[in-house]
Amino acid sequence: MTATAPSAPHTVPHLSPSERAARGKAARAEVPRSSHAEFGIPAGHRDPVEILEEQATQRLPELVPVRYGRMLTSPFAFFRGAAAIMAADLAATPRSGLQVQLCGDAHLSNFGGFASPERDLVFDINDFDETLPGPWEWDVKRLAASIEIAARESGFKPGRCRRAVTASVRAYREAMRGFAAMPNLELWYARVDAAGILADAVQQVDAEERARIDRLNAKAMTKDSVKALSKLTHPVDGESRFVSDPPLIVPISELVPGTSGEAIREQIGELLAQYRDTLRPDRRHLLEGFRYVDLARKVVGVGSVGTRAWLVLLLGRDGDDPLMLQVKEATASVLEPHLGAAVQPNHGQRVVEGQWLMQSASDILLGWMRVTGIDDQERDFYVRQLWDWKRSAEVETMGPALLAVYGQLCGWTLARAHARSGDRIAIAAYLGGGTAFDTAVATFAEAYADQNEHDYAALAAAGQSGRIAVVEGL
Prior knowledge:
The chain is an alpha+beta fold and 474 residues long. It is built from 19 helices and 14 strands. α1 crosses α18, α6 packs antiparallel against α17 and α6 crosses α19.
């Protein structure tokens, strides 16, 4: 009998802190921090509407006009849906050469609160549809641009807009320098909880703003599967079924009329078994305690409108023990044309693994699956609990002081996420202790906010001319 030679072990280079710092300083020499102020439309620049139309070819055609309607609500709403446009623009900007796991869509509204497995309200990045390895500064620039755009929309004077942006970038830079000095495990445990750093941060705003934040946090802690059951379902023959509110919520019985409930139940059972296999063993056991009840398609978000998103209702010990899952389509990241294809074989897996790497705590039921749809097309999805205390910031209502504090909190959180996956010592050395990078990114954000306004106007003009169909108010 011939012995099989063992495979070569997976090795990771372990440079000393001084070698890693030298790497960051060398990158600074190659790509000066001041160069990150640069932004200009490349030669032969794209039509922003054309990029959105290209995305629309992969989406449900009846929902694309709803997406455009939501994007045209304001320049900030447009920016939320324009990650593909900004990805094309960032591809032409200077790159430090230092890589991290990117969020890919790190704007202000993609940070927020949610429940940790320990049932604490934590604050973190909460959207990873576009996650992919890439240059850390791309996320920082998207966050900075979102602050500038939101501040303008709220009517802040230019000086206040710039101060809010630089405060956020400074928070990122200072946090990264702090993380660079941390032991690895201490970094991995770092997080923002509502009772800790978040509570300290809101002390910088007035009593009225603090009271509003407390109310929103308390409201978030009531958003769970039980609340979803009461809002999104109604009793039918003694058991809960999803309400019908087309096009926003459409039960499967209306999407595929005439199909027997037993046939659907069998298909969903097979898909849930596939999803179950992506969970940890203890969580597989938890999921097995629930039975399938109903399915509906739901419109979600701004940029995601038109992708396929489903709600799955499961029940546990009785009718008052619901589990509401969101099954959301995962297509190729908007970063892939510029940074290369994802290594994961399933885009749902790409999203989940990016989330695990960047978040300090993740939904215990986060998983993925591949589905053959009712149109016989194979698509990737990721799965999570629908709400689970999820709380998004009301960016549009923030005053100058609160927006500045919130931007700093997002900057700290983004740095923590990047420090987990990238070389935090090299990035910190690149950033340095001065304000050169802060100032450069603030200048970039101003220029990009101007471009965003032009692109927003282009989409509005396309709607007015009839080039695209727009449905407002949904």
